[in-house]
């Protein structure tokens, strides 16, 4: 593929809003797709179009085959869903938009492992019935649709996405975790507290989405809304916070910066009781596999101990298999500190 006949052949999600690219073969890597009709008009033979290097996700569409590799099922699934969505975006109807769990993944909101990687597509009119797609008919009053800042496709905004999942997520903690992620303002901890980006939405946005009209899962949404907090960096941190609260313990502070007596920055802890000098840290797998992260954690926890802090470290296995043990450890630490 080269020259003028290839101009505009390779497309991505930008195709959905009328844009084309002219950088030659596969300018945007693994997410490049093209329409069969465009390839034929560009002079490519059918044998090439139907070659084994391309997947056939939908009728009339080809996508460069990509092996996402890796051994992390959540990451693999999120990659597969985004890729499938961008492929479908090549021939989306102007009224269609990505929604539900697909929109959540595009907004990088935390989800449990999903039953499949098929994109969710919504429309005000009749729900799309297309192989490989979960189609939905949504009342326009219940959905605010925007152009995604990264992918350039039509997508339910983050607050709407959260509300759409009120009837889909099985565990109430996950609905809170999703809301925590919507209102979170990522920052660089320490003296500067530099903001990395604005939140995808506010508590007021979430409340407006709940009260926009009758929707599935309204009761779980209202219950979750009261428990959402800013400053929570991960799904597991939400789970740990709620495990502690639901055990009858005081609510810990989120995203807490600790400084020494001279004003030097010691570190940021996931959850804390500052007046008792108790920190609760979730140890994700990256804390084990990333050597630099591991060494930073050791240094931070040693400095916290020097300042009289008690650090309670929590693993994924404890969260899902033995949550009561987390609450017991926190309770013992609180009793000892008082």
Distance between the termini: 72 Å
Encode the helix/strand succession as letters: EHHEEHEHEEEEHHHHHEEEHHEHH
What strand order characterises the main sheet?
9-10-11-12
Q: What proportion strand?
A: 15-25%
Q: How many strands? A: 12
Outline the low-pLDDT stretches.
Answer: 1-31
Mean pLDDT: 84
Structure description:
With 338 residues, the protein is of the alpha+beta class. The protein folds into three domains: 4-64, no CATH class; 93-225, no CATH class; 235-337, VSR Endonuclease (Endonuclease, Chain A, 3-Layer(aba) Sandwich). Helices cover 36% and strands 15% of the residues. It contains 13 helices and twelve strands. The chain has helices at residues 36-41, 46-49, 73-89, 100-106, 158-164, 172-183, 203-210, 218-225, 235-246, 286-289, 291-306, 316-321, 323-337; strands spanning 33-35, 54-55, 61-64, 97-98, 120-123, 134-137, 145-147, 154-156, 253-259, 265-273, 278-282, 310-314. The protein has a four-stranded mixed beta sheet with strand order 9-10-11-12. A three-stranded antiparallel beta sheet has the order 1-3-2. It has a three-stranded mixed beta sheet with strand order 4-5-6. α4 (100-106) runs antiparallel to α5 and α5 crosses α7 (203-210). The longest helix is centred in the N-terminal third of the chain and has 17 residues, at 73-89. The protein starts with 32 loop residues before the first strand and ends with a helix.
């Amino acid at each position: 593929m080269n020259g003028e006949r290839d101009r505009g052949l390779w497309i991505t999600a930008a195709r959905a809003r009328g844009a084309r690219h002219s950088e030659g073969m596969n300018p945007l890597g693994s997410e490049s797709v093209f329409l069969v009709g465009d390839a034929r008009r560009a002079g490519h033979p059918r044998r090439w179009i139907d070659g084994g290097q391309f997947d056939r996700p939908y009728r009339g569409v080809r996508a460069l085959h990509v092996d996402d590799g890796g051994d992390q099922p959540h990451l693999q699934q999120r990659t597969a869903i985004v890729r499938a969505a961008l492929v479908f975006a090549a021939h989306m109807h102007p009224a269609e938009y990505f929604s539900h769990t697909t929109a959540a993944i595009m907004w990088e909101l935390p989800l449990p492992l999903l039953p499949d990687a098929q994109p969710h597509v919504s429309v005000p009119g009749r729900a799309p019935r297309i192989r490989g797609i979960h189609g939905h008919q949504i009342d326009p009053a219940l959905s605010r649709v925007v152009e995604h800042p990264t992918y350039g496709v039509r997508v339910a905004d983050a607050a709407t996405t959260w509300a759409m999942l009120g009837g889909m997520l099985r565990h109430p903690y996950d609905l809170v975790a999703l809301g925590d992620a919507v209102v979170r303002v990522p920052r660089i901890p320490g003296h500067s507290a530099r903001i990395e980006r604005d939140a995808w939405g506010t508590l007021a946005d979430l409340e407006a989405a709940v009260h926009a009209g009758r929707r599935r899962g309204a009761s779980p949404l209202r219950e979750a809304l009261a428990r959402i907090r800013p400053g929570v960096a991960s799904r597991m941190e939400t789970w740990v916070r709620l495990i502690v609260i639901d055990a009858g313990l005081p609510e810990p502070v989120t995203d807490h910066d600790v400084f020494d007596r001279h004003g030097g920055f010691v570190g940021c802890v996931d959850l804390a009781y500052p007046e008792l000098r108790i920190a609760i840290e979730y140890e994700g797998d990256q804390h084990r596999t990333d050597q630099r992260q591991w060494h930073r954690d050791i240094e931070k926890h040693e400095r916290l101990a020097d300042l009289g802090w008690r650090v309670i470290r929590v693993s994924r296995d404890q969260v899902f298999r033995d949550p009561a043990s987390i609450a017991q450890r926190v309770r013992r630490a609180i009793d000892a500190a008082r």
